[in-house]
Amino acid sequence: MKKVILFAAIAFFGIATINAQTVKKVAKKETTQTISVTPKVDGAAIKFENETIDYGTIQHNADGKREFVFVNNGTKPLTIESTQGSCGCTVPSKPEGAIAPGGKGTIGVKYDTSRVGPFTKTVTVRSNAVGQETKVLTIKGTVLADPATEGTAPVKS
Prior knowledge:
Elements: H1 2-33, E1 47-48, E2 52-58, E3 65-71, E4 80-85, E5 90-93, E6 104-111, E7 117-127, E8 134-143
């Protein structure tokens, strides 16, 4: 009798293990099939990977250059007409020429990191994208004070 129960238990666990592995394989196939693809837009279109760049906490006079990456998910060429920073401390740059359908491009931005303290600035992008002719992007972060000048007061003559 003990042998019959032992055999039944081994058979049960063996079948359960095989079924568990089969279920995992099916679940992986379903996950792979649910990846969404950005639909094509009729005309020029712009889709940014991120519309906000967070510099985090950076050192005084650190490299302030960053890039907004985008794709033309439309059916016609995309032209970036202009880029404008919200103040003189934010200098954007635009790609020259048209971005073909499915092509990638970048909007460069350089923040003046000689300005100490927290910041939130915007970059306005104008393009021929259908329904998105104007897009506002954001940069933010905090620039630390220069340790060499911290705690020193200007000398009066």
